[in-house]
Fold each of these.
Amino acid sequence: AITFDVKGDMVYSKMKWEAGVHRVQRVPATESQGRVHTSTATVAIMPECDEVDVKIDPKDIEMSTMRSGGAGGQNVNKVETAVDLLHKPSGIRIKCTQERSQLKNKDLAMKMLMSRLYDLENEKRDMEEREKRGSQIGTGGRSEKIRTYNWKDSRCSDHRLGQNFPLADFLNADIGKIIDACIAKDQEEK
């Protein structure tokens, strides 16, 4: 597996057309009978995601207080220092009794809630990314190919477009023509 970053203007909008199964057909130098060998490589193009930003609307929180009990002297048994937060949209409940003041417990509970919501958002984003990657590469089988690089005939066939391109262009990293054709076909279909 190879992973790398590509940076620049509109990189994802152009590189996303490379996602899928790429098939290579060649006759190796060691092949004495001239048989064509076929192999594949799967390519997934993923945009870099920004940090998850968690915002909590105060209306989404239900807070109740209670006496903490336990160690801490008479104060924790007489004064309601414990905080119980319920985040209604997610159903996450945080009960905090660590501190001796209600304000500190509330702050701590809010931090814990933010952390849990942050983890939930990251998990959700990771799952979406896995699904997106899976839909791009499928099973990786040769029948799912988007493009074939044929060394013997010195051509590159894009199966989505039904067109052939000179293999030399791809070997020289000149993929602009095929990307432009993919963009044009996509806009035509919309």
Amino acid sequence: IGSSRRRKLRRIDLDVTSAGRPGLSGDELMRRRAEERRMIADMQEIIDRNARRNDLESYIFTMRAGIAPGAKLSQFIKEATRAKFAEDLRRAEDWLCEHMDDDKQVFVDKLAELKAVGEPVEKRQREEERRPELVAALERVAQSSRAAIRTAKPKNGAGEKLRSLNIACTEALKYL
């Protein structure tokens, strides 16, 4: 069991000579890389087209729900306009089902067509939401300006400017 014999290893240097090259030839490799780049570009185009189609579909569903009676946008669109826009959205949804594989620019154009009607409605809704905040800010500025006018001592003809500023502040507060 316990033999103390060691194995003797002998080292021999080998000469290695390359013969050819593994893999594809240079021309074939270039052709395949070009094909890969083309496939990547095609895939990116498909991804972009699907994203634009999804944008259009999302807009159709969001706006249809938003302009429905009692929805958040319904008070910012006239009834006649709402009925026509709802019909346009329905037709756009039907069109979308029939044109699933069109170019992305077609979807972008269709979305722009719908947004021509929908964006003003959304803008009115955003303005209405911000109105209390803006009114409060105008009131604060007008009142602080009037207070500053009362304590100011006009110099070199500034009295007329202060009077016109006071009148403007008074009119702004009446408007509110």
Amino acid sequence: MPESETDIFRDTPVRYLGYTNELGEAFKVFIHRRVYFASYLVAGCYCVGDATSRAHRAYTDLKLPLFEVANTTAEALIWQGLASVAIPGFVINRTVAGYTRLANRLAPRFPTLMARLPPHLQATAVGLACIPLIISPIDHAVDSAIAAVYRPTVNALFPNTANEGGTANAAISKARTESASVTELHDSPSANHAPSS
């Protein structure tokens, strides 16, 4: 992929900033309240940064009108707000809380285990283990919700200006995918050498 096509918010380690609130939820019992809220602040800044990047791409590269740029920004903010902050944070919060209650109930039956591995520590480990498992299902669910609710609503409210095919986010993703495919084809051995007989 050409350097100009690299999405810093989705193709580089910067994307991991979107997981900070989930880490904050998993370690909530061990960290200061300010650190907990800071984890959400970092994740929120990541969401705004990604939406801003998408808006810039829509305006400068795709040359879309201002309405579509605003629509693209709004969709990206809603998607990131749900898929990166609200839903994962809630899931990890409830998972940690639920496991803590369960472990406390089981503590009298396993006193030696609980002494070596306290319920709060177990709950944190379970919360951390859940993070990679919930990312893909949540992303797909939010994708479906955006396609089923947000885009039809925008098209209904602004029938003369809305892009019926969705916002520029789909076009941006498609353009980056096509660019990556062309680059991979160009760099592959089969692209530079004839197949052997």
